[in-house]
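Final report, Chapter 2: Outcomes

The project's central promise was a pipeline that accepts a single protein chain and returns its three-dimensional structure in a standardized token representation, suitable for archiving and comparison. That pipeline is now operational. To close this chapter, we reproduce one record exactly as it appears in the project archive, with the input sequence first and the structure output second.
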Amino acid sequence: MGRAAAIPPGTSAASWSPACSTSSCWTKISSGDPKVPVLYQVERTRTGTSFLVRSVKAVQHGKPIFICQASFQRTQPSPLQHQCFMPAVPPPEELLDYEALIAQYLRDPNLHEKYRVGLNRIAAQEVPIEIRLVNPPSLNQLYNMEPNQMFWVRARGHIGEGDIKMHCCVAAYISDYAFLGTALLPHQHKHKVCFMASLDHSMWFHAPFRADHWMLYECKSPWAGGSRALVHGQLWRRDGVLAVSCSQEGVIRLKPQVSESKL
């Protein structure tokens, strides 16, 4: 989305913020082709004195693959403020990084082969973010988990204090990482997933933040059923300020169970 499409004439980009009531919501329609350019069609849905809305459609091969609605608000201080409290958790410096935690699991001879294959697959991936899991489960706890998790997360490398839009883009990537998987935690030892994908994803930006600084990501799944799951998330700054809220619905299809009966 170019600046001309997003910010109305006669105003500065600095006077508008992605923090707003409707925020950003996108829906995936079909898989994209990374080898083909994407055409972005932007509609100026609404331009008000305090809020503006832009609708974006991503098109490949003449068909939409993705739609997004982004809302912006002119910066408006208000005495009406509150937020819930950040969970009390150990700081990231006291926790194992993701690579060290996976290596610790893999060294355990009692680790089930299914988990061993999955952990090796995760370890082989190169991701641009660092993760420190809060209260990582023991092997016994893997079989009796609740649909919630918390982890510290930040971008690898230095982004700096530059354009807040860059930090918002990185937060969007962070918000989708392992998010839908929260709904699988109570079921991962019972079922094998054959397909999992996001259907829609919403974000609300509440306060300024830096995505290259540690933030606590609190994820919960209140419901799953009908081959779908719902997850909610909150990204907290280290000083306890709630920076971003997220929600996602996804499709989760399981591999049919094969009966072991020989009758």
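Archive annotation: Residues 1-5 have pLDDT under 50 and may be disordered.
This record, like all others produced under the grant, will remain available to the consortium after the project formally closes.
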